[in-house]
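Reviewer 2 asked us to include a model.

Predict the structure of this chain.
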Amino acid sequence: MTTSSRAARRSRREHVRDVKQQVTAQVDLQRVGKCDFLTDGRYGWAVACEQAFGPGNHPVAICHEWNTIAHLSGYEGSPEARPFTRAELQRFLDYADEQVERAVRAKRKGALAAYRDATLFKVVYGWGLRRTETSKLDLADFGRKPGGCGVRPVRDAQRPVRQSQEGAAAAAP
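Predicted model (structure tokens):
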């Protein structure tokens, strides 16, 4: 058995485990929602059940914190795709800056590329760009404006990256 097939099999097992956890959490949420609907006095189910089945026969909550899935973290997706914490992000950006300084001190090729990468990471974070938007950035996307430097026009996902609001209004039929 090759290493790649082992990795693929492990990846499938992890995917199945993640899907099972997600489905179980969804079922729990549905169950809690149904219990809330049945036991909430605003809907009248308790009164209807007592009328139909006799006094003391009414729905009660069966879902509690001790018998439902605990949501232990703020992010329940794949650990490989989770967002950075603020501390991790700061450490990452500091590392990118250190790579620039290291390349400059060594007086070798790569200082400009390291500076470009560090700057791009900060632009992506600062403007909240997606991968596709980042790949389409061009020098024309940045310009000077009174009171600010490096200004980026606002755009939405339906327009090309370099098309500003005014350009889109002029292009509209």
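The helical segments are 3-39, 45-53, 86-106, 111-127, 131-135, 165-171. Residues 3-39 form the longest helix (37 residues). We have added this to the supplementary material.
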